[in-house]
Amino acid sequence: MTEDLHLAEHPIESVRVFDGNLLHINRDTVRLPDDSLATREYVVHPGAVMILPVLPDGRILMERQYRYPLHRVFIEFPAGKLDENEGPLACGQRELLEETGYTAESWDYLGVIHPLISYTNEEIHVFLAQGLKAGEAQLDEGEFVECIAMTLDELTAAVLDGRITDGKTISGIFWLQQKLAGR
Question: Domain Nudix hydrolase: where (predicted)?
Answer without folding.
Answer: 44-177
